[in-house]
Amino acid sequence: MWTQHYDLHSHSTNSDGEHSVEFVAQLMKNSEVKYWSLTDHDTIAGWKNAYQSANDLGINFIPGVEITCERGLEPDELELKQRGRERASKSWHLLAYFPELKPDDEQAIRFAQWLKPLQDNRIPRMKQMVEKLAELGMPIDFSEVADKAGGSIGRPHLAQAMVDKGYVETKFEAFEKWIGDGLPAHVAQPKPSIAEAVSVVRECGGVTSLAHPLYYGIPPKQLGQYCKSVGIDSIEAFHRSHEDMYRFELWQICTQQGLKVSCGSDFHGQTYGQSPGKMATPVGQLCV
Ligand SMILES: [Zn+2]
Ligand SMILES: [Zn+2]
User: Fold this and answer.
1) Is 21 helix (H, G, I), strand (E, B) or coil?
2) What is the CA(227)–ligand 2 centre distance, in A?
3) What's the predicted TM-score (pTM) here?
4) What is the rounded CA–CA span in Å between residue 181 and residue 175?
5) CATH fold for the domain made of 122-179
6) What ranges do the domains of the chain cover?
7) In what order do the strands lie in the sheet with 260-264?
8) From the CA of 38, how far away is ligand 1's center (Å)?
């Protein structure tokens, strides 16, 4: 049995998404999503609005967050090549879900406190990236980047500013040439280890899923073993960027390792040509 009623990965203007929480909720509803998670980067600022919007629309909101962590394993060159990836991302993203939590619960507040330093670093880091771009002959005012960020500032806002200035044709090009991990204008962010993030999420009553493993360059079997060993509950096998074969391989590995799965459109906005929902996922193995 399969379902398309879940979309457990989406972003709003509280991080690097384009749309308000309310609008994302409406799009989810339009796509017939019944269980929706908002997973903004390193913040739970959108939870209250999301609860309200979901309630108004008659869908279920599952509080979530996408935590930027250090790499769990070093990438395997052969695996990257086989999946057609040029390089692996420098950070791993861990999705955390708190199906039982309300925004004012003590555990939610404790979790938000743990996230705060990860958030606070975003502005100084962005200023450093702006400086690097200036040194590279692409001056941008920090305020031009900040104006594009509704909530927490991120690289997509910088990429848009670069497009507006005519330094690159597309946001994609900005990432590929300048601001992607390890590139000339990139500045790394301080990140928790996967193990630390897993333990904090557990203490606060949540479960975890490793987001979009395609970006990490780890053979599925090794990935499954790693997740099991470090206490990650599930893998986002059904991510929008994954081809069917890869989804299937990950799903099989999860089954063998006794892990759950999760599914997500990783919706950031309509100008990326994205739409939420329509994520076919096997019933009975979902992590929430
Ligand atoms: Zn991510
Ligand atoms: Zn995401």
Assistant:
1) helix
2) 19
3) 0.86
4) 8
5) DNA polymerase; domain 1 (1.10.150)
6) 2-112+191-282, 122-179
7) 64-70, 91-97, 207-210, 234-239, 260-264
8) 12
